[in-house]
Amino acid sequence: MTDSLQPNGNRRAPLPPAEPPDSEAPDPRPRPRSENIQNTQKTQATSGKKRDAFFDNAKYLAIVLVAVGHFWEPFKGENRSLEAAYLVVYTFHMPAFIVISGYFSRSFDMRPDRLRRLITGVAVPYIIFETAYPLFKRVIDNDPQYEISLLDPWYLTWFLCALFIWRLTTPIWKAVRHPLPLALGIAMLASVSPQIGDDLDLQRVLQFLPYFVLGLCMKAEHFQLVRRRSVRIAAVPVFAAALAVGWWAVPRMPTGWFYHRASAQELGAPWWAGPIMMLALFGCSLLLTACFFSWVPGRHMWFTALGAGTLYGYLLHGFVVKAGDYRGWFEHSALHEPIGLAAVTVSAAALVTFLCSRPVQRVFRFAMEPKMEWAFRRDAAQSARDREREPLGERDDREKRDGREKRETQETVSA
């Protein structure tokens, strides 16, 4: 009967079945403010970026090669094969480390919180270790005449000085049109300028600058390109050829070219050799660095967590190397045999692995990552961001506490 009441006698179409609510659609019902804040914090916690295992693995493996190279140094003059391997390692281990440093410096600007991290994480450790190393030499080597100089980086501290300068200039490299060619031009000019001197180790700062700028220019997909299977396979003959070239170059090329701490004239070469060697080594370093990155595992490994402590391993292993040099540990004849050299290599890798571990980080965090909240003014913008991240209950308690303290202060003043 009801059907006959419809126009033209048409039957009414049945209603569609109820669909389950869309979890991604916005809920039209208003929610309490506290629930919204909790959901926002939960979303931020779950969507926060995690550390990329590839970069932590790369940093750890690079710092192992740095330590191994330093422990090889006392033996390289007696073994041509070892010196060839030494040259190959020195061609790419610091460039790889510097490229990663540049890549993670892309977001650096002059914001107060980032400047504070630069000071506490780079400048303060530089001052501490630039003071500690000469004092260590005085005690271990019985050299009371050795002076402390913050302008002349000693041994490993040059990297901290360079990183501080590179990061401060990051906004410039992000503003110019062709940053990498400009950085290469500066490095080439530095290689023919012996007048630069040793202050702040500017030769190294300028000659290693292109690798840092390259890291600033790189994106995540660039690292994906070198991690393809074809590149991993091609890296095998590339490294084999590099070792052969290194073996050939041992009696023909000064090792100083690979340190990037002297000009061509200071290495006994004509001035025009500086730019040529700078470009040649830059190309070789990039090739071997790409091959090195291709072999770095991208998944979580047993040593992945150690990648967060590479600065600890870098700065602390130098004390052991210098102690061995001062005390004559490397002069034992057994260490100059193949088995002894293998033992030195394994020991160097084990030592730097231990120095990157969490227990060592906890002990030396005061020197590597001091908070130094007492030394800086409180940033108003950062305070506002911290208040926004506070849970509602804690914020209400803080506001009540602040209001109570304000009233007590006013009553005290009026009394």
UniProtKB/TrEMBL annotation:
Name of this chain's protein = Acyltransferase family protein
Question: Residue ranges under compositional bias (Polar residues)?
Answer: 36-47
User: Any keyword Endoplasmic reticulum?
Assistant: no
User: Mind telling me which residue stretches traverse the membrane in this protein?
Assistant: 54-72, 84-105, 117-136, 148-168, 230-250, 270-293, 300-319, 339-356
GO MF annotation, one? acyltransferase activity
Give the superkingdom in one word: Bacteria
Q: Acyltransferase domain: which residues?
A: 53-351
Q: Does Transmembrane helix show up as a keyword for this record?
A: yes
According to the UniProt record, where is the region Disordered? 1-49, 379-415
Alphabetic keyword roster: Acyltransferase, Membrane, Transferase, Transmembrane, Transmembrane helix
Source organism of the structure: Streptomyces cathayae
Which InterPro entries does the record associate with it? Acyl_transf_3_dom, Nod_factor_acetyltransferase
